[in-house]
Amino acid sequence: MKVFYDADADSQLIKDKRVAIIGYGSQGHAHANNLKESGADVIVGLPKDSRSIQKAKDAGLEVLYSRDAAEVADVIMVLVPDELAPGVYRDEIAPALKANKYLAFAHGFGVHFKKIVPPTDVNVFLVAPKGPGHLVRSEYERGRGVPCLLAVHQDVTGDTRGIGMSYASAIGGGKAGIIETNFKEETETDLFGEQAVLCGGLTSLIQAGFETLTEAGYAPEMAYFECLHEMKLIVDLLYEGGIGNMRYSVSNTAEFGDLTRGGRIVNDETKAEMKKILGEIQSGQFADEWMSECESGKPNFRRLETEGEAHSIETVGKSLRAMMPWLGEKTLVNKQVN
Ligand code: NAD
Ligand code: MG
């Protein structure tokens, strides 16, 4: 796989365009501020009643209503939640699209699953940072960057890849590495990762471990430390140097337990279910289910979220975290400003 850096990008390309960032959430605030500090001409597009208007103005950014921002821009980056993107695209962006403009995304969801079908005379690309927006911003402020994926879906003017590379470099991606992919691969691997491993797999693993210990009569505080709190220590070791690094650092007893028991927890049956989940993603079944869930007002989403909040691991977690004040210091997220 080829990786590109700042030297491979023409930093002038994006500076010669007007860029509209539609949305000022996790990704939006990072892209807008990084692009501006890299010398690009940036406008933030937001709905009339948005609370983010003040945050963006406080950061010294020019703010317009989404439709007006899309109208005056050459490059329109859509950074609204994926479930809202088709509606925002239809109402605010599509009417402002002219031939040869550039429509951009940070996730291929809408375009790949055809919830958004751009006209054929418009360029379409994606720049997807492999990290949350708050890290994209904080790394840029430290003179570094977060790796970015780059993909081109439609290239009418012949320079879409160059514009995308220049954009990725301007938000800091060229310091860490820009990896070229396509909309299908970015979208399907992203959904699979968050469902099977990162969010879905991990939260279910933690809860099942916590329940097993508490149901056996162990203190919920002990179960919380073992199954949730210490997860970070292990993940830090994995993040730093992979599985071998983690196994090198933990005790021999822990490593023997890992090697002999792990495969009994995540076994052939688990993997068969992972394959089923991947199939639902590839066929578009998951995308359709999520879109119709949103159309009906998210009843299952809210019910499951409420059930999760009521789990006893949340109550014990709250009181234990209060004993560790350092956990609240130096957070990347400050809801008042980003
Ligand atoms: P978010 O929920 O943090 O922010 C969404 C923003 O959209 C908010 O500022 C909201 O006010 C705004 N918005 C809502 N309706 C709007 C409208 N009609 N016009 C303009 N703005 C509107 O979203 P996010 O997590 O930054 O996700 C944005 C995109 O980035 C998604 O495609 C997501 O998949 C992708 N992405 C996110 C992450 C991440 O870590 N958060 C990482 C990579 C890619
Ligand atoms: Mg992801």
Estimated radius of gyration: 22 Å
Low-confidence stretches are none
- What structural class do the secondary elements suggest? alpha/beta
Question: Helical residue percent?
Answer: 55-70%
Query: Number of helical segments?
Result: 18
Q: List ligands, each type once.
A: nicotinamide-adenine-dinucleotide, magnesium ion
Mean pLDDT: 96
In terms of DSSP E residues, the strand content is 5-15%
- Tell me the span between the first and last alpha carbons: 34 Å
Total DSSP E strands: 9
In spatial order, strands of the major sheet run: 1-9-8-7-6-5-2-3-4
What form results from the Cα inertia axes? Answer: globular
The sequence of SSEs as H and E is EHEHEHEHEHEHEHEHHEHHHHHHHHH
How many strands, what sense, and barrel or not for the largest sheet?
Answer: 9 strands, mixed
